[in-house]
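During the reporting period the student researcher (J.K.) took over the structure-prediction task from the postdoctoral fellow and processed the backlog of single-chain submissions. One of the processed entries is reproduced below for the supervisory committee.
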Amino acid sequence: MTVTANPPTRVPTVPIPSGVPTVPAAPAPPAADTRRYRPVAYADGPAAALRLLHATTSPGVLPVGPGGHALVPADVEAACDRYATGAGPRPRAGVRHDLLDRVPVGADTLIAVRVPGGGPPPHATWTAGLLWLRLGLAERSLAHAVAHLRGRSVAGTVTLNLSMVRGMVADAAAGLAEAHALLETVTCAATCACTARCTCVAAATCRAGCACPGGCACPGGCACGATPRDGTAWTRAHHALEEAGRICLHLFGAAGFLADGPGAEVRAAELLADTYPPPTDLEAS
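J.K. obtained the following structure tokens:
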């Protein structure tokens, strides 16, 4: 007997063993909601989701992390004529860019570059969007791992039905559920006039319990799943997704560690987290 997992909106369902915790289905997010990157990452992979994230948050500007590094699809890197700095976007012309690596992800390639003087981290919407993107990628990896194990057997037993394997799948699913819960419950970032200090990116009304006296003064309301102020929550979500991704690598067996295998997207997800780490509590406050 199986139960049906509920992946992000518009993605085909993947059955998993009975008793394994699942990530709840996300409602169709508003167009500007940072949750929108999750179903794109699940359905189409990291490059497609990064293109959408870049186009909606920093078009024309190469997003550079706090270490002066950037990791984006090759076509995005080529199209950016400016790069992010603490003083705002600067022209890339005449600035040295060090090519660090080319990271293949399916039919696409991500370009890793170092830009001296680039950074600090992109704005909060990019960071929050990247977390939702990573959640979609981790769900994608787990779904692929489950499908892979369902087609294999050990001594006449479907590999997916082995107790140890079921436990690993459950651990990965629990990590995804933890990350999802953290992303759904964190408060919004500062820069709003209301006391709840919500920076909202979606046209939605406040949820019950909004702390703003007389209603929310944010343009768009609070129910956006937008950007957390809590750097600890951001970091915990990244760690939960990292652990879930590494469990998926083991579920694939040796194939999970091939450069051109299913582990390529897990590697890309970890590199994105390293390139664009969440702010500390001090930076987020």
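The committee noted the following: DSSP finds eight helices and ten strands in the chain.
J.K. will present the remaining backlog at the next meeting.
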